[in-house]
């Protein structure tokens, strides 16, 4: 059907040749007796002759009728074909394109077959009919039967003595075969017993070794756990000691820095005093020099020139140092302002991304809740199926037990056990190697565990900070819960008022029911009075009774009934409207309260994160400022003084101002500052 004709060698089931024509879907193909040619028909309405994987001849149908089936006679001299029009064709063979056609079926032919002696042809079509044809040549002679088709029988004639000798020898051979089989079976049983004993010994030995290995593995595992616990304890002690040393060093260096700062201030004061003293001395010397100038003009003129040149050089150096100090201060201020702008943009972008992530997580939370409910239903269904599978498993285990009892006596078990013993020995050897490799890997993993524990410590500090934030948020939530409880009290008051109104409505409904009953009684009495329309006296009595019963009792009440009803309806409408408005206000307040709560929580989380980041940056800047101030002090001591670095202090002040603004914007309570943080933050109270 794919447009391919394959030729197969059935002796070794090998494909020898092929011819592929994808535009044609073949429906039938036959091969000659000598396998030199193949004839095939298909959807292209052509009869093809294929030899050596090539189409050597094509015969197109003149009426463009598709040939469905072809059959070749066993003698190789006749070719018959069945078409989609229900006709049977007899082609001249070898093929020339000439044929004779007979209309037989009323539907396309589906199968054609010819007998082994080429005497009869059978055809079947889609119209559910079977036709049998007598194959004859043009002169009316039937096909000659091939003599080769008549096969000879296999029986031959022998003498009785030969037959008896043959049967006797056969009997003797049978007895010998039986004896040999008995002996072989006995030998096999002995070998089975020997092999079973050897297998039993090997399995016992293997089980003992396996138990010993398990015990050693458990001991090693216990020793490993003990060592891990010991090393963890040592690590904790080292961490505590390191933390204490770190706190002590921080306090010591803080004290040293304070002393250095005081010393720096003292040196600056001394420098100012020296400058004042030298300026005063310079003025006095100028006065003395002016007085003695007239007298010593000739003698000290050269000395005066030298002093003036020295003074000019010192003034130039002073101006250069002042200009250099101003330039460095300006550059530091520009760098700090640029870094502040970059930090501001970065944290604003981070705040926007965090808000988008929070909204996305809300949507994902709803989706995950739906998935959770669906998964719970699936879990219940799976539990039922698992129960059924457990029952099937029990039945299968029973069946397996019976089968294992039947399998124990088979000979294959010996070979399988020999193979399993060899495999187990190899497995033991591999496990020993693997155990050695695992010991090496264990050493590497212990080292990695230590490294990971070192990395986990700062994360634990962050977790503690987050827990403190969660506590603050819990306090805020408690405040909101108190507000909710006060709102619930107002709701209960409104509900009580509503219940009172409903009771009033019920009482009014009962009154209306009574009035309806009175109207129905009036109607019945009126109907009874109408029955006395022919009797004036009885009619008059019945009208008097009705008047005395209904009119005299309801005259006073009827005068005020419309006003009472109007007032009642007005009050009821007013109360219903007030209840509806209060409900709407309550729902709106609850929604606003919930949205404000979520918004404030999100803003507080982002602000606290930003505060922590800014504090870390302040710490880093303070460390850099301290290092720069120490280097600057060393340079000033060596070079005779110089201006301090004021840019870092201004940057730290601006960052602190930013932190104060963020803390003022946060609604949660400020968490307590630890001793370590107090040391890191300049100016914080311990």
Architecture blueprint of SSEs:
Layout: E1 4-9, E2 14-20, E3 26-31, E4 38-42, E5 46-51, E6 54-60, E7 67-72, E8 79-83, E9 87-91, E10 99-103, E11 109-114, E12 120-125, E13 130-134, H1 160-293, H2 297-407, H3 412-531, H4 536-639, H5 647-665, H6 675-680
Antiparallel strand pairs: 1-2, 3-4, 4-5, 5-6, 7-8, 8-9, 9-10, 11-12, 12-13
Helix pairs in contact: 1-3, 2-5, 3-4, 4-5
Instruction: Tell me the span between the first and last alpha carbons.
Output: 92 Å
* CATH class (first level) name of the domain at 4-149: Mainly Beta
Radius of gyration: 58 Å
Q: What's the helix count?
A: 6
Strand order of the largest sheet: 3-4-5-6
CATH level-two architecture of the domain at 4-149: 7 Propeller
Question: What shape does the CA trace take?
Answer: extended
The chain-level structural class is alpha+beta
Largest sheet: 4 strands, antiparallel
Question: Low-confidence runs (pLDDT<50, min 5 residues)?
Answer: 637-648, 666-686
Query: At the third CATH level, what is the topology name of the domain at 4-149?
Result: Methylamine Dehydrogenase, Chain H
Tell me the CATH superfamily of the domain at 4-149.
YVTN repeat-like/Quinoprotein amine dehydrogenase
Order of helices and strands: EEEEEEEEEEEEEHHHHHH
Helix content: over 70%
Nearest-integer average pLDDT? 79
- Beta-strand residue fraction: 5-15%
How many strand elements?
13
In short:
The chain is α+β, with helices and mostly antiparallel strands and 686 residues long. Helix content is 72%, strand content 11%.
Features:
686 residues; alpha+beta; Methylamine Dehydrogenase, Chain H; four-stranded antiparallel β-sheet; 13 strands; 72% helix
């Amino acid at each position: 059907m794919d447009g391919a004709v394959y030729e197969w060698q059935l002796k070794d089931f090998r494909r020898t040749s092929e011819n592929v024509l994808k535009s044609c879907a073949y429906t039938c193909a036959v091969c000659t007796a000598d396998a030199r040619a193949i004839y095939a028909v298909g959807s292209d309405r052509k009869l093809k002759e294929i030899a050596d994987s090539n189409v050597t001849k094509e015969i197109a149908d003149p009426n463009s009728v598709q040939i469905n089936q072809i059959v070749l006679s066993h003698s190789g001299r006749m070719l018959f074909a069945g078409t989609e029009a229900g006709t049977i064709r007899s082609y001249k063979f070898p093929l020339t394109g000439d044929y004779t056609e007979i209309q037989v079926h009323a539907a396309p032919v589906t199968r054609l077959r010819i007998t082994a002696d080429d005497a009869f042809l059978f055809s079947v079509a889609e119209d559910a009919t079977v036709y049998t044809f007598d194959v004859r040549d043009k002169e009316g002679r039937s096909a000659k039967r091939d003599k080769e088709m008549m096969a000879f029988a296999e029986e031959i004639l022998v003498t009785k003595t030969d037959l008896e000798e043959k049967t006797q020898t056969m009997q003797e051979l049978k007895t010998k075969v039986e004896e040999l089989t008995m002996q072989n079976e006995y030998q096999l049983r002995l070998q089975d017993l020997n092999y079973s004993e050897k297998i039993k010994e090997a399995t016992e030995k293997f089980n003992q070794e396996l138990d010993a290995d398990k015990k050693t593995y458990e001991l090693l595992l216990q020793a490993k756990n003990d060592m891990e616990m010991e090393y963890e304890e040592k690590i904790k002690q080292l961490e505590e000691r390191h933390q204490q040393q770190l706190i002590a060093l921080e306090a010591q260096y803080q004290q040293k820095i304070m002393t250095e700062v005081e010393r720096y201030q003292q040196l600056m004061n001394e420098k100012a005093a020296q400058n004042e003293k030298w300026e005063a001395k310079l003025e006095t010397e100028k006065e003395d020099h002016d007085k003695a100038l007239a007298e010593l003009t000739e003698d000290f003129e050269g000395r005066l020139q030298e002093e003036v040149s020295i003074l000019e050089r010192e003034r130039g150096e002073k101006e250069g140092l002042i200009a250099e100090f101003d330039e460095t201060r300006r550059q530091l201020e520009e760098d700090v302002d640029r870094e502040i702008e970059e930090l501001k943009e970065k944290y604003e972008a981070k705040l926007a991304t965090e808000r988008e992530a929070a909204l996305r997580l809300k949507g994902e939370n709803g989706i995950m809740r739906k998935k959770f409910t669906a998964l719970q239903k699936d879990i219940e269904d799976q539990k039922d199926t698992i129960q059924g599978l457990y029952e099937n498993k029990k039945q299968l285990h029973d069946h397996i037990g019976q089968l294992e009892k039947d399998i124990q006596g088979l000979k294959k078990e010996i070979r399988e056990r020999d193979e399993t013993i060899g495999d187990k020995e190899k497995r033991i050897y591999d496990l020993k190697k693997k155990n050695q490799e695992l010991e090496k890997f264990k050493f590497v993993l212990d080292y990695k565990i230590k490294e990971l524990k070192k990395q986990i410590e700062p994360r634990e500090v962050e977790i503690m900070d987050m827990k403190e934030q969660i506590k603050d948020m819990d306090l805020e939530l408690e405040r909101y819960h108190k507000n909710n409880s006060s709102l619930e009290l107002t709701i209960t008051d409104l509900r009580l008022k509503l219940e009172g109104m409903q009771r009033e409505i019920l009482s009014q409904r009962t009154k209306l029911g009574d009035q309806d009953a009175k109207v129905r009684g009036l109607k019945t009495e009126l109907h009874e009075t109408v029955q006395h329309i022919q009797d004036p006296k009885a009619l008059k009595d019945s009208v008097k009774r009705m008047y005395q019963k209904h009119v005299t009792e309801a005259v006073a009440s009827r005068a005020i009934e419309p006003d009472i009803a109007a007032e009642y309806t007005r009050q009821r409408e007013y109360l219903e409207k007030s209840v509806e408005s209060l409900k709407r206000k309550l729902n709106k307040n609850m929604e606003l309260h919930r949205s404000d709560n979520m918004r404030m929580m999100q803003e507080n989380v982002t602000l606290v994160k930003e505060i922590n980041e800014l504090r870390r940056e302040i710490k880093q800047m303070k460390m850099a400022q301290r290092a720069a101030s120490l280097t600057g002090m060393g340079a000033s001591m060596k070079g005779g003084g110089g201006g301090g670095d004021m840019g870092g202090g201004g940057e730290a002040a601006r960052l602190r101002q930013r932190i104060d603004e963020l803390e003022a914007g946060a609604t949660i309570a400020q968490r307590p500052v630890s001793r370590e943080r107090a040391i890191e933050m300049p100016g914080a109270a311990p």
